[in-house]
């Protein structure tokens, strides 16, 4: 059964935030919240009568600051983060194969999918996979900073994500082309960077991108490693 998440978009950073709900329960999970969208997200939770149980991060983002720390303080939720991303204040340090639970019987399976960053995680829930910057719609995240690796990303996508059922819905952390959701089957057949491409071809492609450094990286990464809170807070 596919149960759709609530998908919210930040136009400044092109970031998707997701709210997952639990049938028969008022508990909810939020994935990759953005600092200046805190009030928007709180209004969604209030409007729907939801109690936030978990705040999940797919990685320590370089292009925006998270609101995870403030959400945790305001709602009593626990922060759950990839163990390899250096986000020390979070209560739950996640490893590959972990299972997060909320509501009465909801389970989120943790998949370590490094490449964009060394610690990047994807989250599988009810036929939906939240892929962070590892797998985007018709693309993938860059691999040239934060311990990125084109080889690791290739393995994460082709070995782990593309091994999921074809009808698994793909919900990325970002989109820059007005798209919202895809499927594993579509990405396996059509993804411009990864479909039917050899490891060596992918390595060459990624090495030739020559992307500009994210404007906020020097601010965002240290902030996100403290759940978006000022250091010492």
TrEMBL record:
InterPro entries: Metallo-B-lactamas (IPR001279), Mito_Persulfide_Diox (IPR051682), POD-like_MBL-fold (IPR044528), RibonucZ/Hydroxyglut_hydro (IPR036866). This is MBL fold metallo-hydrolase. The keyword Metal-binding applies. Keywords: Metal-binding. It comes from the Bacteria. Transmembrane segments: none annotated. Residues 14-174 form the Metallo-beta-lactamase domain. It comes from Massilia suwonensis.
């Amino acid at each position: 059964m596919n149960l759709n998440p609530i998908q919210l978009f930040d136009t400044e950073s092109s970031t998707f935030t997701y709210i997952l709900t639990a049938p028969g329960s008022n508990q909810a999970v939020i994935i990759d919240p953005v600092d200046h969208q805190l009030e928007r997200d709180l209004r969604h939770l209030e409007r729907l009568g939801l109690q936030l149980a978990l705040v999940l991060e797919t990685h320590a983002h370089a292009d925006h600051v998270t609101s995870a720390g403030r959400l945790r303080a305001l709602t009593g939720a626990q922060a759950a983060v990839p163990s390899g991303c250096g986000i020390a204040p979070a209560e739950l340090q996640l490893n590959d194969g972990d299972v997060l639970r909320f509501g009465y019987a909801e389970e989120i399976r943790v998949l370590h999918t490094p490449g964009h960053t060394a610690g990047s995680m994807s989250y599988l829930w009810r036929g939906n996979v939240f892929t962070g910057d590892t797998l985007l719609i018709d693309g993938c995240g860059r691999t040239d900073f934060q311990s990125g690796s084109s080889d690791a990303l290739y393995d994460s996508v082709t070995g782990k994500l593309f091994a999921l059922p074809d009808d698994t819905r793909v919900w990325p952390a970002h989109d820059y082309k007005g798209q919202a959701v895809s499927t594993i089957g579509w990405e396996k057949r059509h993804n411009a960077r990864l479909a039917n491409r050899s490891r060596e071809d992918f390595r060459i492609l990624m090495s030739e991108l020559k992307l500009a450094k994210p404007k906020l990286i020097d601010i965002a990464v240290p902030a996100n490693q403290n759940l978006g809170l000022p250091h010492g807070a």
